[in-house]
């Protein structure tokens, strides 16, 4: 898994919103990478910066008030943060595509499904004829499991159910074979049985087309079911990163531990749910020390003063918590001894 | 066994569909179609189902916020469905509701103190001093502080607002609380806090809950018994243990197997049901689930299955489990 090529690297990303209440660092020094063909989960609660990170990659941060104020997003040797609008337009769709939570608001109600799919095709293949574009649209609709594609192509978004609309969005995103697909809460607005269908489809497409997927969600169940690697975000920062097995079976950061314990499990009845005290902080309300210190039950004196680094606790597992500082040191020691 | 606090029989809600300029009724949406159940004192009945299954409509009819088209609702020995508007208003002192969206259900122009005091004024409970005292008492019970009474809804987080919503429901010392998706707008860590609070309150104040939600994990956690609804009908009703370990109705099976479980080591056979929920304005004949059911038989398209007890405390509405179907 780890020998796969890194497709996209986010380094020290800083996205700030300039509002009347001052500068709000919604994404604060975030590092991660996406590997070829993997499904990477980004999980966190509202305001943790997971969606803004995704929008930053796409160059879609609403500006003003938002702006990428630091860091790099490297894709295919290019730094996406340095590209012009025009160059970015070529990247979007061709290299990186995105689907959103609410498929109704992302589709234009005045145009047919076919019209909107063909538009996406023709923007990226300017030399194609209408017929070619239409064939491609039908082919994509079949790929995402939409029934009676030939008829559906003439219908309008309101004639489709929520699940079908999300399939159309996926078809539209994949029309130009992007290397990375960003899915921002793709199933949150859907019913459970429809959610299961869409997640199944996304897993199949990931295998078949080898498209890397960034799955942004607040639902730990969705993460466990679909992702290979997970990034946990809190207060605009990455607090833990690792393979899905380690995140669920050996969570290290107190926030990750608390989050996993607070989810009710359908398989058995827990006597009482663990609950993290306090409330989810507003973006930018905590600027010094560990962002989680105020809610943490293992808090140390230094936590409210200095923000811990993302310590490497094993070759594949990183945690932003002082409790694991020594573990990194011992890991480095071991590496020295072994060499 | 304790006496049921609430008995619902044959509850129906049909919404007319108006067409054309004269508003002629051209059809009906059967939002709730012949639903019966009971709730025992001190227990929690969970109602689950996907959007459009009629679970919220059922909840609203129990309080007569929506008038039922047909059916009887018996609460604590009284037939609610026979009460006049005025009598019903008085009866609501004992049945209160907690809503999903704590943003929309609190008046932004009223202070928390005023919001909490209002139910007491409406029901004519206590004098001004006693009411103030009670407001502060209940703020503390739900984990807020007395100084919060002077603040306004926008100054609170989502979780705190839901605590206020719960406090408001408790002000009149109700016996039954109907909670419609009370935690689905909240973050996971806050959701756990509110669920724990609701469980503590239930023990302390001997409350009975009807907990309506789409999240099957949350419903299992809080409920003693669970009813599964599909297209306006109750398709299965059982003890929560028995339903989750041994779902009988094909829809319940599919629903349970579709829920993502927060454990990457967990594997199971997923029953993916195809297609979408049919429109409730034109529901399928016979069993409404037959269009998506993997075990469809001939009888299913013709005869509506009745909710029947097949094991002790476990009822299901499916032809697979009655003799007629097995023959």
How would you portray this structure in words?
The complex is a heterodimer of chains A (339) and B (327). Chain A is globular, with a radius of gyration of 21 Å. Chain A has helices at residues 50-58, 85-94, 103-106, 113-124, 130-143, 149-152, 162-174, 192-209, 220-226, 244-249, 254-262, 325-338, and strands at residues 6-19, 22-35, 39-43, 66-75, 78-79, 96-99, 180-184, 212-217, 229-234, 237-243, 311-314, 317-319. In chain A, helix 4 packs across helix 5 (130-143), helix 4 runs parallel beside helix 7 and helix 7 packs parallel to helix 8 (192-209). Chain A is built from 12 helices and 12 strands. Chain A is an alpha/beta fold and 339 residues long. Chain B has 10 helices and 12 strands. In chain B, a hairpin with a 2-residue loop joins strand 9 and strand 10. Chain B is globular, with a radius of gyration of 21 Å. Chain B has one domain (6-94, 174-325): 3-Layer(aba) Sandwich (Rossmann fold), CATH 3.40.50.300. Chain B has helices at residues 55-62, 85-91, 112-122, 128-141, 158-170, 188-205, 216-222, 240-245, 250-258, 323-326; strands at residues 4-19, 24-40, 44-48, 70-75, 78-79, 95-98, 176-180, 208-213, 225-230, 233-239, 308-311, 314-316. Chain B is of the alpha/beta class and 327 residues long. Chains A and B meet through helix 8, helix 9, helix 10 and helix 11 of A and helix 6, helix 7, helix 8 and helix 9 of B.
Instruction: Please tell me the overall pLDDT of chain A.
Output: 89
Helix percent of chain B reads 25-40%
Low-confidence stretches of chain A: none
Biggest sheet architecture of chain A: 8 strands, mixed
Q: Supply the helix-strand structural class of chain A.
A: alpha/beta
Total DSSP E strands of chain B: 12
**Largest binding interface between chains:** A-B, 46 and 44 residues
Strand content of chain A: 15-25%
Rg of chain B, alpha carbons: 21 Å
CATH class of chain B: Alpha Beta
User: Which strand order spans the largest sheet of chain B, edge to edge or round the barrel?
Assistant: 6-7-8-3-9-10-12-11
CATH arch. level architecture of chain B: 3-Layer(aba) Sandwich
CATH topology of chain B: Rossmann fold
């Amino acid at each position: 898994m780890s020998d796969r090529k890194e497709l996209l690297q986010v380094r020290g990303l800083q996205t700030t919103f300039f509002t009347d209440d001052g500068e709000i660092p919604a994404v604060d020094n975030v590092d991660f990478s996406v590997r070829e063909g993997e499904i990477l989960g980004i999980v966190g609660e509202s305001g943790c910066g997971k969606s803004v990170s995704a929008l930053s990659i796409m160059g879609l941060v609403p500006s003003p008030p938002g702006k990428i104020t630091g860091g790099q997003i490297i894709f295919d040797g290019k730094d996406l943060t340095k590209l012009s609008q025009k160059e970015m337009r070529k990247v979007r769709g061709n290299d990186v595509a995105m689907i959103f939570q609410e498929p109704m608001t992302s589709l234009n109600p005045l145009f047919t499904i076919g019209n909107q799919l063909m538009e996406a095709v023709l923007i990226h293949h300017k030399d194609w004829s209408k017929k070619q574009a239409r064939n491609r649209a039908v082919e994509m609709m079949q790929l995402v499991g939409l029934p009676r594609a030939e008829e559906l192509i003439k219908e309008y978004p309101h004639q489709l159910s929520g699940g079908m609309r999300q399939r159309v969005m996926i078809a539209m995103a994949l029309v130009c074979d992007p290397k990375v697909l960003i899915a921002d809460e793709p199933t949150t607005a859907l019913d459970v049985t429809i959610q299961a269908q869409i997640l199944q489809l996304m897993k199949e497409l990931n295998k078949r087309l080898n498209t890397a997927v960034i799955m942004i969600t607040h639902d730990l169940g969705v993460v466990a079911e679909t992702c290979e690697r997970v990034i946990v975000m809190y207060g605009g920062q990455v607090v833990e990163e690792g393979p899905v097995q380690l995140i669920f079976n050996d969570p290290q950061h107190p926030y990750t531990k608390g989050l996993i314990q607070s989810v009710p499990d359908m398989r058995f009845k827990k006597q009482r749910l663990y609950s993290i005290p306090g409330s989810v902080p507003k973006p930018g309300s905590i600027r010094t020390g560990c962002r989680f210190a105020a809610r943490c039950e293992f808090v140390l004196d230094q936590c409210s003063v200095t923000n811990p680094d993302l310590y490497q606790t094993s070759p594949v597992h990183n945690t932003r918590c002082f409790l694991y500082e020594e573990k990194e040191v011992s890991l480095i020691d071991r590496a020295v001894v072994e060499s | 066994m304790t006496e049921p606090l609430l008995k619902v029989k044959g509850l129906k809600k049909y919404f007319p569909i108006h067409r054309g300029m004269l508003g002629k009724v051209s059809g009906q949406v059967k939002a709730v179609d012949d639903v019966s159940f009971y709730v025992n004192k001190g227990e929690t009945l969970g109602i689950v189902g996907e959007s459009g299954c009629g679970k919220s409509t059922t909840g609203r009819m129990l309080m007569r916020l929506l008038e039922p088209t047909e059916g009887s609702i018996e609460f604590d020995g009284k037939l609610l469905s026979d009460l006049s508007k005025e009598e019903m208003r008085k009866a609501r002192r004992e049945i209160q509701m907690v809503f999903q969206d704590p943003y929309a259900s609190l008046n932004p122009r009223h202070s928390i103190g005023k919001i909490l005091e209002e139910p007491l004024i409406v029901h004519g409970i206590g004098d001004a001093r006693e009411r103030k005292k009670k407001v502060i008492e209940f703020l503390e019970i739900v984990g807020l502080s007395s100084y919060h009474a002077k603040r306004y809804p926008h100054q609170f987080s989502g979780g705190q607002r839901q605590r206020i919503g719960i406090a408001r429901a408790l002000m009149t010392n109700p016996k039954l609380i109907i909670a419609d998706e009370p935690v689905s707008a909240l973050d996971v860590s806050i959701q756990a806090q509110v669920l724990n609070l609701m469980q503590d309150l239930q023990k302390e104040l001997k409350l009975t809950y009807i907990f309506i939600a789409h999240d099957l994990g949350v419903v299992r956690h809080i409920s003693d018994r669970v009813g599964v609804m599909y297209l306006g009908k109750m398709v299965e009703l059982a003890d929560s243990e028995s339903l989750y370990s041994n779902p009988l109705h094909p829809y319940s099976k599919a629903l349970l197997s579709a829920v993502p479980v927060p454990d990457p080591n967990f594997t199971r056979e997923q029953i993916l049901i195809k297609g979408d929920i049919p429109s409730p304005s034109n529901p399928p004949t016979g069993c409404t689930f037959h269009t998506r059911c993997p075990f469809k038989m001939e009888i299913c398209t013709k005869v509506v299955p009745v909710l029947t007890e097949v094991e002790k405390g476990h009822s299901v509405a499916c032809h697979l489990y009655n003799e007629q179907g097995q023959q």
